[in-house]
Amino acid sequence: MTVLEKIVADKKEALVATKQRVSLAQLKDEAFYNRKSIEPKTNGKPFIITEFKRRSPSNPDINLHADLSQKVREYQSLGCSAISVLTETNYFGGSNADLISARTKCEVPILRKDFIVDSYQIHESKAIGADMVLLIAASLEKQQMADLFDLSLELGLTPLVEIHEEDELSKIPENTVWLGVNSRNLKTLETDKSKFLKIYPQLPSHTIKVAESAIKSKTEVDELFGLGYSAFLIGEAFMQGGLQ
User: Fold this and answer.
1) Is 209 considered catalytic here?
2) For this structure, is 101 an active site residue?
3) Were 116 and a residue from 33, 55, 121, 149 both cysteine, which residue would form a disulfide, CB within 3.0 to 4.6 Å?
4) Is 244's pLDDT higher than 80?
5) pTM of the model
6) 216 bridge partner residues
7) pLDDT digits (tens, 9 = 90+) for 168-203
8) Could you confirm whether 41 is annotated as catalytic?
């Protein structure tokens, strides 16, 4: 079982209890549920998605004691285009409360970074104040992806569809706009930045291409932007001091 398979299995098990604790009707009664989401928009410059992430399976101590409020202020002062907030607890140390807190302090779009495998989580994302949701192709069947993608749009959320390998492109909906390429190998957890270059020619031309994982310097951002990537999801570098 890969790390992703283990995380997804645990997520499905946890969802059983979550649904019993908070019903779909209760989610729809939350104040943020009827809030108009902020649509992410590119402007011809690198679209930087800064991330709040305490730890991960590949790095158990990114910044365990980071202050979320301080980081959100810092990211906005740096001029970030959007903020990604981890809400997965067991492996990343995040929570829904983190995203709710960020929402009250943030004027840019917020991406909910989690392992979404159920329509309940899309409604939950809306209820906690997310503007964007991550849909990971490796964790979803093609029809699952389509259903979750369509529900996201229906609720006014922007789906960021993420692939790790070229063969996962067959799962992405035709009307995908935000398409992420994650350089991490889900079996070894190692990153391979050459993947950004290898996969790029196969990406649909109409998509906004997002480079994810292992980006540590402004030079890398500039090079990938020149190649055709418009957006960059950067976590560890900003959690540990900023781009080189």
Assistant:
1) no
2) no
3) 121
4) no
5) 0.97
6) none
7) 999 999 999 999 999 998 888 899 999 999 999 999
8) no
199 vs 169: CA distance, rounded Å: 10
pLDDT on residue 189 = 87
Q: What is the pLDDT of residue 187?
A: 80
**Could you give the domains of the chain?**
3-239 (3.20.20.70)
Helix (H, G, I), strand (E, B) or coil at 208: strand
Q: Has 113 been annotated as catalytic?
A: yes
User: Which region holds residue 228: left if phi is over 0, alpha if psi is between -120 and 50, else beta?
Assistant: left
Strand intervals (E) in 130-236 = 132-136, 158-163, 178-182, 208-212, 231-234
CA proximity to 86, closest of 122, 56, 63, 121: 56
**Which of 88, 124, 168, 212 is labelled catalytic?**
212
Assess contact for 90 and 115: CB atoms under 8 A: no
> What percent of the chain has pLDDT above 90?
93
pLDDT at site 40 = 98
Query: CA distances (Å), 2 to each of 117, 188, 214, 242, in order?
Result: 16, 8, 20, 30
- Whether 212 is catalytic is yes
Question: Residue 133 carries which DSSP code?
Answer: E
Q: Is 53 exposed, middle or buried (0-12, 13-18, 19+ CB in 10 A)?
A: buried
